[in-house]
Q: What sequence folds into this?
């Protein structure tokens, strides 16, 4: 599972992100607020939505 890093503050238009990524807005909100984890694929999509040059490890930490 991948969890959004707690020390990062990002401004994300969650409505637009949900349309682009294809997952529900509340789900993205819960991931960014660290309430739930996500798969590597979803972490990759969110990372590239925020910054196309970033890596998953820039925004997420892997917790098994």
A:
């Amino acid at each position: 599972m991948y969890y959004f890093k707690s020390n990062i503050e990002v401004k994300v238009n969650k409505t637009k992100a949900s349309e682009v990524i294809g997952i529900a807005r509340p789900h993205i909100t819960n991931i960014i607020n660290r309430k739930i984890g996500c798969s590597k694929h979803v972490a990759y999509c969110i990372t590239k939505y925020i910054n196309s040059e970033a890596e998953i490890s820039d925004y997420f930490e892997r917790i098994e």
User: Anything to note?
Assistant: The longest strand covers residues 2-4. The two ends are 6 Å apart (CA to CA). The mean pLDDT is 95.
